[in-house]
Amino acid sequence: MNNNPLIHIQNISKVYEMGGEQVFALRDISLDIYPNEYVALMGPSGSGKSTLMNILGCLDTPSTGIYTFKGLDVNEMSDNDLADIRNREIGFVFQTFNLLPKATAAKNIELPLIYSGVSSAERKSRAIKVLQDVGLGERLTHKPNELSGGQRQRVAVARALVTNPSIILADEPTGNLDTKTGIEIMKLFRDLWLKGNTVILVTHEEDVARHAQRIIRIRDGKVESDEKNTASQYSQESE
Amino acid sequence: MRISELGEAARIAIEGLQANKLRSFLTTLGVVIGITFVILMGWFLNGLDAALESTVNLLGTDVMYVDKWSWSGGQNWRKTMARKDITYQQALEFCKKINTAEVSLPEARKWGGTIQVKNKNITGISIIGVPFSYANLPAGTISYGRFFSQFEDQYSTNSAVLGWNVATTLFPDGDAIGRNIKIGGRSFEVVGVIIKRGNMMMDFVDNQVIIPISTFFGIYGSIGRSVSIAVKAGKAELMDEVRSETTGLMRGIRNVAPGEEDDFSINETQTFRDEVQTLRLSTWGIGIGLTLLSFTVGIIGIMNIMFVSVTERTKEIGIRKSLGAKSSSILFQFLVEAASLCFVGALIAFIFCSALIFVIVQIIPQADFLTPYVPPQLLLIAALVSIFVGILAGMIPAIRASKMDPVEALRYES
């Protein structure tokens, strides 16, 4: 394992003002995530795991504490820098897929490349390639409403992969899928991890979390536990 | 801003327009009306300028008319009325003495004359008496036939040169030469027809009949009739010189004491420019007022619909931001959308105006100084104005969209 962490957070807190009262969404969290880790952020709803994911994904910034991404201080970054980091380094996969309903699968996948200034021809060829990688090569011109839930999530994963990001951040990726489809999507994440990607999975389900190699449990805005998942079926399978 | 984003923004804008056709159309109505005013105003002013040019060319930029009356009418009317007539003798004396002018000649006019052909009477014709040298003025340009000769002039023959409208009205078959007409009970032979030159400002020039000046005085008499003098400098640059000699000569001929005001006016085409300028300014004034009013309404409508669009697409904004869209990209996207909306409005206005202008020119004969189509440069102006209006209207909603917090926006459920 690489000695330099991809993500380093130290004593970060996130405070919201609510009716004049300070509410801590996160309290004093510290953790490091290294390249090619498969991490599950676990916790019940309201535990602060979504807030943590938003911060890790550079969608939000912590109120206090240090966050460095690949050695760069995220707190010092402007909105434009954060947008760049999201564009190049982070691939989001959401529970509700968050595809643009009017755009085809290919156009949805091309979207991040549009914002990094990739030419039209290259966008197309890269979109085709990642769509094949997630097993949907023939669904290029379909719009989201012409695809099943599992297929939509595959398109979303393809969109997350198309920029070759440093980490894949998946927020309850199986939450809107039936069990069987959910298992297929989890297999897809395992494959990505085996190919060398860093995957961070946010979930409240034990079944989903146990796919990961490391499980970080969050409760009341604090890290409750952070341990290697020795029972990881995939790490066993891969041996 | 990246090129790739421009394409994306345009694609989104077109998609948006297609998805909400009726809404887009209704929203853009204010802009359609505003652009319609811009086009109509530009079209009218364009025609006005062309009419001015043809009037100026008709009279000649190097020609001045010495007259009892001033064309601009700006002077005290009573004072002008009290001026003595310019007599034929004074005019002849002036023409004999002037050195700097290329051509100078007296011109006597009878307004509201009547001419007859067989049993047909035409009234409201202006009869003018001039010497043969009138053929050297721009106003004496012949379409077909010839101008009356020096001989005909000297011997006061009954030769007539017709204005274009007179010729076509009396002789619709096209050949007026050699025909007879009656003016003041006398029979005249038509020897030539003047080119069609009239327009809005000078339509009377096509409704006149030109006869030798001596013949004119034979019919109408010279008493109580003020003659005007056409003075052609030859070149526009010589106008100042000719004007000062003209002033000096006329003052001498009419015995104007030193220190007294001139008792005549020297009229030039500049007068028309001044008048057109006044007309242009008032057209601008009214046009700009109406245009601003409709654009204000249009901008409010578009701003409103853009706010709706931004709200409807909160989630989309969140998605785009999570994928790396910068605030400027989102801002740009909505500005392009608003500008496209207005641009479509401009296209609609352009089509509408083209049809309207075509019809106006067809049914109103007096509008023939206007082009039957929208001048192409106006299309460009309309497009630019519409895009500017779109950006103006879309700015506040677009800023709101660009400043959305990605976390909040992603959480939004429509």
Give a brief outline of the structure.
The complex is a heterodimer of chains A (239) and B (414). Chain A has helices spanning 49-56, 79-89, 105-115, 120-133, 149-161, 179-194, 206-209, 233-238, and strands at residues 7-18, 21-33, 38-42, 64-69, 72-73, 90-93, 167-171, 198-203, 214-219, 222-228. Chain A has 8 helices and 10 strands.
Describe the structure.
The complex is a heterodimer of chains A (239) and B (414). Chain A is α/β, with parallel strands linked by helices. Chain A has helices spanning 49-56, 79-89, 105-115, 120-133, 149-161, 179-194, 206-209, 233-238; strands spanning 7-18, 21-33, 38-42, 64-69, 72-73, 90-93, 167-171, 198-203, 214-219, 222-228. Chain A is built from 8 helices and 10 strands. Chain A has a 6-stranded mixed sheet with strand order 6-7-8-3-9-10, with helices on both faces. Chain A has a 4-stranded antiparallel sheet with strand order 2-1-4-5, with helices on one face. In chain A, helix 3 (105-115) runs parallel beside helix 5 (149-161) and helix 4 (120-133) packs across helix 5. The two termini of chain A are 17 Å apart. Chain B is of the alpha+beta class. Chain B contains 13 helices and 10 strands. In chain B, strand 2 and strand 3 form a beta hairpin. The interface between A and B is medium-sized, with 30 and 25 residues.
Which helices and strands appear, and what pairs or packs with what?
The complex is a heterodimer of chains A (239) and B (414).
Chain A: E1 7-18, E2 21-33, E3 38-42, H1 49-56, E4 64-69, E5 72-73, H2 79-89, E6 90-93, H3 105-115, H4 120-133, H5 149-161, E7 167-171, H6 179-194, E8 198-203, H7 206-209, E9 214-219, E10 222-228, H8 233-238
Parallel strand pairs in A: 3-8, 3-9, 6-7, 7-8
Antiparallel strand pairs in A: 1-2, 1-4, 4-5, 9-10
Helix pairs in contact in A: 3-4, 3-5, 4-5, 5-6
Chain B: H1 3-19, H2 21-59, E1 63-67, H3 77-81, H4 88-97, E2 103-117, E3 120-130, E4 142-145, H5 150-154, E5 159-162, H6 164-170, E6 180-183, E7 186-194, E8 208-212, H7 213-220, E9 228-232, H8 239-253, E10 265-268, H9 270-312, H10 314-322, H11 327-363, H12 376-402, H13 406-411
Parallel strand pairs in B: 3-8, 5-7
Antiparallel strand pairs in B: 1-9, 1-10, 2-3, 2-6, 2-9, 4-7, 5-8, 6-7
Helix pairs in contact in B: 1-11, 2-9, 2-11, 2-12, 4-8, 9-11, 9-12, 11-12
